[in-house]
Every structure is written in structure tokens, then in C-alpha cells.
Amino acid sequence: MPQRPSDPRCPIRLGEPCTLCFPGASGPQDCGLVYLVRSDPELREELAARRRERHAAQLSAPAAAAP
Description:
The protein is an all-alpha fold and 67 residues long. The chain has helices at residues 32-39, 41-65. The longest helix is centred in the last third of the chain and has 25 residues, at 41-65.
């Protein structure tokens, strides 16, 4: 069975695909923006907070839709 090409996700813009927005990047693995955010403690904590908020919203969304 042929494998589908992977669709890398941007670890900074949560939920969006990697659009190679950083010049010279071939994906999140060598993106300068990803490196900067992950190497800066304040930016890393901000990203973690946004991920927690998004995760909490995803968990509460199905419960709100249930009758």
C-alpha cells in the first residue's frame, strides 16, 4: 500500500500546516522561528499556555454540544 506524504504541522501556529514561512526551511525541524520560540523561556511558556488553553477548549467543546 503506498504511503501518503506527511503533512507537517506548525508547532507555533497551532493547528495549522507548516507553510515554510521561514526562508530556507524545509519543515518545522529546521525552522528558525521554531528554534527561537523553543530556545526562549518566555516564548516557550507562552506557547505552552496557548496549547493548554486549546486543549482545554477541545475537551469542553464535545461536552457543550451534548444534550
